[in-house]
Specification:
Protein name: S-adenosyl methyltransferase
Organism: Streptomyces africanus
Radius of gyration: 17 Å
Helix content: 25-40%
Largest sheet: 8 strands, mixed
Structural class: alpha/beta
Number of strands: 8
Order of helices and strands: HHHHEHEHHEHEHEHHEEE
Distance between the termini: 44 Å
Length: 263
Amino acid sequence: MPDDSLRVRIDTSKPHSARFWNYFVGGKDNYEVDREIGDQIKSIFPGLVDVAVTSRRFLGRAVRYLAVEQGVRQFLDVGTGLPTADNTHEVAQRVAPDSRIVYVDNDPIVLAHANALLTSTPEGRTAYLDADLYDPEAVLEAAAGTLDLSRPVGLMILNTLGHVADYEQARELVRRLMAGLPAGSHLVISDSTATSEGMIAASEAYNASGAVPYYVRPVAEIAGFFDGLELVEPGVVRVPQWRAEPADVAEGVDAYCGVGRKP
C-alpha cells in the first residue's frame, strides 16, 4: 500500500494516464474516474484499445530483438507506467537472465506499485528510480548506480513523449538521454499519432478530462526522434507492423514506433 507521503500525491478525482492505460490493457490498478473517461473514449474511438494492446506487444518484440539479436543486457525504461503483464524486465530476463533493467517514473501512482516491478532473476538486477524525464542528466546519473553506461543500453520511451507538449523540447530530451549512452545503444519509441480523425477526437476528449494532456503527433515527428541514429528495419511503422509476429494482426492502428541504433 502507498505510504502517507505518496497518498497525498495521488489525485483520484481526475483521470490519470497510467491508470487509464492500465484499464485499456485489462489491468486492475485504476479508479472509477479512469474507467469513465476510458469508456467515453472507447465510444468515440474504439481503436484506442488496439493502440494500448499492440503497443504492449511491440515492447515485447523490441526487447527480445535487442536481447537476442543485438546482445543488449541493459535497459533503461523511462515513463514506466503501471506494471501489467510482460514488463521490460520480464521479457528481457526470460531470454537473457543476466539482464539489468532500470525503470524511471516520477508518478506517485507508479511509485506506489514499484514493489511489483522490483523483482529480478538472481543473475540480473531490476531497479526503480523516482526521477523526471525533464532532467535527463539526473536520470542517467541515477541509472548508473545499476547500469554500466560504458556498455550498450536499450533506452525505452513508450507512450510517454506525447506528454511533452513542445515537440522540439521532446526531441531535445531524447537527444540528451542518448548523448549519455555509448555507441551500440538503441532507442525504442512508440507513441499515438494524429493519423485519423478518431484518434484526434479521442486525444481532445482525454485532454479535456482534466488529466495531464497527451498530444498526438504526425508520423514525421515520431521519425524525427531518430535523427542521427541508424534505423532498424522496417523503420518507423505502425506498432503491429514492426517485426510482426502471427498474432499481430491489427490494421490501421494510430500509433507508430521505431528502433534506432547509436553508431
